Amino acid sequence: MSEVTGNAMGDSMGDAMGDAMGGRTIRVLIADDQPLVRRGLALILGPDPAFEVVGEAGDGAEAVTLAHRLRPDVVVMDIRMPVLDGVAATGQLARELPGCRVLALSTFDMDEYVVAALRAGAYGFLPKDISPEELVAAVRVVHTGEAAVAPRLLTRLISTYVRAPHRPKPPVVSAGELTPRELEVWRLMATGLDNAEIAGAMDISVSTVKNHITSVFGKLGARDRAQAVIAAYETGLVEVSSGQG
């Protein structure tokens, strides 16, 4: 069972509840080629006053079309769909509707598609066997602009795909671009620690960790935690251990 990033979840749940109390709801579009899955996701999110399920799509192309028309805040996007798959649809939405955030869904045996979705612009991903509570929390996290990703699952997925043999390695960020503390925060983030755990490991406050992370994102050109972790593996800052995979 996965868990969404812990530090973001608490803050975002409060934000979402505040939106709901103030009359604002999180508009959600569900995209999955299986009608039963779509209906199940809608039944999970629909009763919560923080959400409004504004539409359902059966393939990626329909998801893009509906997103342009309905302007959802979050698209819950299956990775494998006909006509246009979830990765391509995510990339198109990231380019055309940057305010529309994608939460990708996949199964454990499709790790490479999940990483591809993150590269395409998804704000997070979850396995399809998550609990209803985890789905609700993840949509809230994504809505706030944070990455809804299980940290240790993310590093496992990246270790099996991003650092595959013979894959070209992008240029390493020069030491002058990141301070020593920023490099350490980035490294700890990439090993799966959340903000509170990083703060404990470095003996600094959580707010200081958040400031360092914001600076790291800016210097890396990473939109969120998921992309920063991918960059850490691709640049060699974090090496894949022989026990992973």
Tell me the β content. Answer: 5-15%
Uncertain spans, ≥5 residues at pLDDT below 50? 1-22, 166-172, 241-245
The topology string of helices and strands comes to HEHEHEHEHEHHHHHH
Mean of residue pLDDT values: 79
From the spread of the alpha carbons, the general shape counts as globular
* Subunit organisation of the chains: single chain
Task: Tell me the number of strands.
Answer: 5
User: Over the alpha carbons, how many angstroms does the gyration radius reach?
Assistant: 18 Å
What structural class is derived from the secondary structure elements?
alpha/beta
Distance between the termini: 17 Å
Task: Count the DSSP helices.
Answer: 11
The profile of the biggest β sheet is: 5 strands, parallel
Strand order of the biggest β-sheet: 2-1-3-4-5
Helix content: 40-55%
What keyword list fits this structure?
5-stranded parallel β-sheet; disordered C terminus; 11 helices; alpha/beta
